[in-house]
Amino acid sequence: MLGKKLVTAQKRGETRALCLGLGMVACSMMMYFFIGITIVPSYTKSVWTTETVCKVLKANIKDKVHCSQSEDSEDENVSHYPCLQVWVNLTASGQEVMLYQTEDTLERDPKCSYVPGNSENPKEVKTRIETIASNFKRYQTFPCYYDPGGTQTNVILSRLYPPKGLLFAFLWPTLLFTGGCLIILLVKISQYVSVLSAWQ
């Protein structure tokens, strides 16, 4: 009687462990799919892949310049905020080009080097932009990214998804997938040992 209870409890434990392993594998597959349709296209689409050194030439704030969030936006969706324009000397080619914060900044508003969020406080945005401008004037030289192919003549300060960021994004689903596979493997080994013991 005790032996049957032990066998039943063992089977229940194996079933739960197997379900946990399969669940972990399924979750990792969903995470891989999500990363594949969101982060990977943005990473491969970016042409600013080569790092170089940029030197600030001028950093101007145009308070009354109206910067729209997108070219197709209607009047009610237009945001008004101080427009920071930073021009740098690209060390790799010696050209005078405009600097953007990220790839997304250029898509949202090609007139401004920095684009704040839609729901941010206007006073806080103005203070932040002034701080950013003063930092550019203080730190004249810094690393930036440019397009070695020449399709984009401007540069960006930082990439949305650098190679390290992409690897980090794949780290967690990989660990989850590996853990799930190990659990399934251990359950199968346990079942095999149990069957082997029963035959003996």
Automatic annotation (TrEMBL):
The keyword Lipid metabolism does not apply. It comes from the Eukaryota. GO terms for cellular component: voltage-gated potassium channel complex. Keywords: Glycoprotein, Ion channel, Ion transport, Membrane, Transmembrane, Transmembrane helix, Transport. It is a multi-pass membrane protein. It is found in: Membrane. The chain crosses the membrane at residues 20-40, 166-187. GO terms for biological process: detection of calcium ion. GO terms for molecular function: calcium-activated potassium channel activity; potassium channel regulator activity. It holds the Pfam family CaKB. PROSITE patterns: PROKAR_LIPOPROTEIN. PANTHER family: CALCIUM-ACTIVATED POTASSIUM CHANNEL SUBUNIT BETA (PTHR10258), CALCIUM-ACTIVATED POTASSIUM CHANNEL SUBUNIT BETA-1 (PTHR10258:SF1). Belongs to the KCNMB (TC 8.A.14.1) family. KCNMB1 subfamily. This is Putative calcium-activated potassium channel subunit beta. The lineage of its organism: Eukaryota, Metazoa, Chordata, Craniata, Vertebrata.
